[in-house]
Amino acid sequence: MNRRRFLASTTSTLAVASFAGCLDSLAGGDESTTTGPTYGSTDDDIVDTTNSDSGTDETEGPLAEEEQFDADHPVWVQNYDSTAHTLTLRIRRDGAEVHTTTVEAGPGFDEIVYNLEQLQPEGIVQYRVVAEVGSNQDSRAVQTNACFGDVNVSISDGEPTVGFEIC
């Protein structure tokens, strides 16, 4: 019986040792392969591996769209109510009103009523778009960079809601 116990423990030990060796080789633990130094990626590494030469003039690198000037931001107004509403749209910069328009939005109204590029900003600036229907009001800050898209003002149950597309 001692012989059987000896053979069983020896076989188990050899099986575990060889299995562990297999796992080491699966994990890339081959000691005969030498590797170079390990280093963290830099911004240059990220740009080189994530941006291809697509022929565009876009800024490359992390946060590129947030840093790229783009004033083209149409302001869409949609009225989802079955009644008409008078919408007052105010655009402010640094607390000062730079544009005001009033729109008669009938049921199903869905049109572009303004574009922030009409304000002719010379770089990335922040505007506050304020929408008012009667005594109801909503507003959002929008920047003139490539990350922001269209500004959407929707009217539902007499309440304006300002939103925007963002990257």
Protein model, in words:
The structure is a single chain. By secondary structure, the protein is of the alpha+beta class. The chain folds into two domains: 1-28; 69-166, Immunoglobulins (Immunoglobulin-like). Helix content is 22%, strand content 38%. The protein contains three helices and eight strands; from the N terminus they run αααββββββββ. The strands form two sheets. Strands 4-1-7-8 form a four-stranded mixed beta sheet, with no helix packed on it. The relative contact order is 0.16. Residues 10-19, 21-27 and 29-61 have low confidence and may be disordered.
Set down the secondary structure blueprint:
Layout: H1 2-26, H2 43-50, H3 64-67, E1 74-79, E2 85-93, E3 96-105, E4 110-115, E5 126-133, E6 136-143, E7 148-156, E8 159-166
Listing every helix as H and every strand as E from the N terminus to the C terminus, the arrangement reads HHHEEEEEEEE
Major β-sheet strand ordering: 4-1-7-8
CATH superfamily of the largest domain: Immunoglobulins
Total domains, how many?
Answer: 2
Helical residue percent band: 10-25%
Which regions are unreliable across 5 or more consecutive residues at pLDDT < 50?
A: 10-19, 21-27, 29-61
CATH-derived topology of the largest domain? Immunoglobulin-like
Indicate the proportion of strand residues.
35-45%
Number of DSSP strand runs: 8
Arithmetic mean of pLDDT? 76
Indicate the CATH architecture of the largest domain. Answer: Sandwich
For the sheet with most strands, the description reads: 4 strands, mixed
What's the multimeric state? single chain
